Amino acid sequence: MDDVDGGALGESGRPTIAQLTIAQLTIGVLGGTGAQGAGLVSRWVRAGMRVVIGSRSPARSAAAAATLAAATGSDRVTGTGNEECAELADVVVIAVPFEAQAALLHALRDRLAGKTVVSCVNPLAFDGGGGPHALRVAEGSAAQQAQALLPASHVTAAFHHLAAGLLADPAVPVIDREVLVLGDDPGSVATVRALAEAIPGVRGVDAGGLNQAGRVEALTVELITRDRRERRERRDRDRQGPDRHDVDTSGRVASDRVASDLDASDLTVGDLHVPVVTEPPEMTITHA
């Protein structure tokens, strides 16, 4: 049997994750035509990664891949159905709505066996007024549900709080954020941290085991709620006059502050400390 750098190939005849550098991996994104998935795909393609976009509609994913290839000049992005995406990829990212996850992973269980699987799924719903609320998950979190459905895979949780709009914006070349990576397999956690850091500016942080994922997923609701409140308050202030602007001492606007609120210091794994999200003190600049 052939080998890579002197190491034996895996049972499938392909190199194992340990034998590949992050740049050699093929990344599959299930639901890669949705907002979050497309944003991640865009960043990884621009970083030179090989990416397969998965979708229920192979035609839609192929069109998305062609558009991105034309925009970036990359020949390392392709689009296909979710089944082939799971088959081709070394690392697979789940970027589908929570309500679609169980059926999808049940169908792909055999194709995903032995692979690192990354859940960025947030189990939430919106009420009649558009407000978000967290959904109860019997397993404790969307990531833990994924692990229960994929017993032969190494499931990690990551990328929950990278805003889709920010990921997709080519005018923002560097994203100064920390991505919390949770998982029980050290090798998979290391791989996903490296995958996060393939995005310029992003820092991957080992935030503990998969049993912590529910805390991280739940923070998404708090961040969305706070962001909407701050946007509404800024609109109200703008209507009152241009002499007050919601900025902090670094000059970042409130929505940027919210997006960067979650970093390594926000989750103390040992005692399950998660900060209570409260209204930040208003910082204003008064112009003469």
Task: Walk me through the structure.
One of its GO terms (biological process) is copper ion import. Residues 230-259 are annotated as: Disordered. Pfam families: F420_oxidored. Residues 26-123 form the Pyrroline-5-carboxylate reductase catalytic N-terminal domain. With 288 residues, the chain is α/β, with parallel strands linked by helices. It has a single domain (3-213), classed as 3-Layer(aba) Sandwich (Rossmann fold), CATH 3.40.50.720. It is built from nine helices and twelve strands. The strands form three sheets. It has an eight-stranded mixed sheet. Strands 1-2 form a two-stranded antiparallel ribbon. Strand 6, helix 4 and strand 7 (116-119) form a beta-alpha-beta unit. The radius of gyration is 20 Å and the shape is globular.
Structure described in brief:
With 288 residues, the chain is α/β, with parallel strands linked by helices. The protein is built from 9 helices and 12 strands. It is globular, with a radius of gyration of 20 Å.
